[in-house]
Prior knowledge:
The chain is α/β, with parallel strands linked by helices.
Amino acid sequence: MAVLMQWALRYLFPARSSREQREQIIGTFANLRKQIPLLYGVSLVNLVGMHLATNGSHLDWFSPVTVLSFVLLWRMVYWIGFQKPTREFREIRRELVQMAVFTALLCIGFSLWAQSLITQYPEQSLTIILYSLLAALGAAYGLSSFPRAALLPLVILGMPLAIRLFLFDDQSAQGIGISLFLVLILFMWLLQVHSRALSELVSGQLAIARERNRAVAAETHAIKRADEDVLTGLANRGRLVREIRHHLVRGPASGGGSVLAICDLDGFKAANDAFGHAAGDAILKEFADRLTEAFADKALVARLGGDEFSIFWKDGLSGLEIEEVGDRICELAAEPVDWDGKELSVGVSCGLTEAGPFTWSDGEFFRQADSALYKAKESLRGHWHLYDQPQFQADQRRARIEKLILSGDAVDQMHVVFQPIVNVETGQPEYAEALARWDSPDLGVVGPSEFIRIAEKLGVIDRLNECLLGKALSEAADWPSTLSLSFNLSAMQLSRPAAAERIQRVVDAYSQPPDRIQFEVTETVLLTDLGQAERELRKLTDSGFTIALDDFGSGYASVSYLRELSFDTVKLDGSLIDNVLHSERSRQILLGMVDLCHAAGARCVAEHVETYEQFALARSMGCDYAQGFCLGKPTTSAKMLAALDLGSKQTRLPFGHFAKD
Ligand code: C2E
Ligand code: CA
Ligand code: CA
């Protein structure tokens, strides 16, 4: 049965592919539904006409004519009223094949009956042939949108009649037979052309549909790509920002708003450098997959770029859930990544924030998560931190400091105080260190450690420190020649090209001789870019300035700096003096450091000397200078000069009587 069906389909719908055949079937059915009743109507009228012509009005209820008429009537009524416009392909196919088979059977029956009537009623031959031909042509016309089926009435019913006419013993009948034969051939040829045109139309439509689908698919793909991170398949920053813009829910101060996490892989750069980019990519992909598996059902997971990822919970999380999420993110990164038989290990630091009343924009939401990440990194790598109220206040303060620094108002509000650096042998202050002070009407007192760091981050430290140097130089202009200025240079400042020239220009403007100016630099200067710092420092020493290495012994103190760069002075970090009274070990370390400085050809300053005992110990251990609260707190130039009463033989230093005469 299936084979027969296949064969019938192949004949009825000649096509290059099954897809094309399917389209033909659907198209044929749609057009044919309206024409089919016409086909049955024509057949019925001709059948009845032929019966009346041969048998008159006599009707036998069980004759083939009556049965056939009822069948045709029923089919006509069925197609007009009952046949549902179905969209189910198998059903459509079955209907069409059924109809073609029914047409073939009908034509065979009609043809045999017509031939037998001609034999029975030779005098009615022409009438019978006329009705039969009208039936054949009517049926073919009714089936014109199903060309292969339309051939059936012509071949089965029309052709035998034409041949029969040709066989008549009458020349005019023979002529009509030939003419009829040719008309039928022409009609069949037209149907063939129609069939081909139909199949080409369908394949053309299919090609257009294919092209349109391809264009739609390409567009969908492009839209997806624009929103997607190519490496990990996660959402990219653009998509995340859009989602946050549309779905951010700001909760009350007690919590409940949308939550954003920003994660930064620790140790990723090291793994990338050690094993190459393929390993780096494997780590990123693996971490992306782990985040997706853990959170993608309730949140949007995105890659912001580099080794930074982000997760956005638009519906928020409970306090407990936030803690669980933070722990989970850290756990996910802690698990090593298998790559090329190796186990690659990284960690993650993560900042989380919850949108609250102060999250006024998506930009602020991002900033808070970023600030929390910064805090997480500051404390301990591999940890998470939730943005909180104190941090918000600190950030607000910081933002106001930044604004005042950038507008130039900060430097106008700043002044410089001075702290003496005393020669431990003579008791005389030989230097005074300039220390910046900012008492802001808006923010209160802002410490130099805080604003110097912010100015460095903002990249405006050169300008700020040059202004401060100017202020210090103008105060120092009144000092006696025995007192020199010691001024702190920032690490950032020295890592810029032509730093020395810029500093020189400021000094020139105040006509101060370079040998009365000392610049203090910390090791961080040297850490940033040793070569650059060395060049700038050498230019300064060549111009006659003296250079002090500040805070030596804190942080990354390296002996190699003392070997490679020549410093006139080394200031030992305050922490080295702190325990010197109570710990033998601290004393030994200080002793060693002093010897080290002397061996490097530098004089040595003990910082943070707060008591007489510390001062005495520093002196006995060979320090050349001392600086600290007990020798003079940072104060204005005028107060310092008054307290020191420079020039008098009897120094009035608080501990002046400890100095040798
Ligand atoms: P620093 O260069 O190490 O300055 C010494 C710091 O120690 C000063 O803090 C000073 O007030 C403090 N100090 C002095 N004697 C004692 C003592 O006996 N005990 C203790 N505990 N502390 C003492 P200050 O003024 O807060 O300055 C902090 C840092 O800010 C400075 O550290 C310096 O690195 C930086 N700084 C200050 N002014 C400037 C400036 O004008 N330019 C630059 N670039 N940095 C500056
Ligand atoms: Ca200093
Ligand atoms: Ca210092």
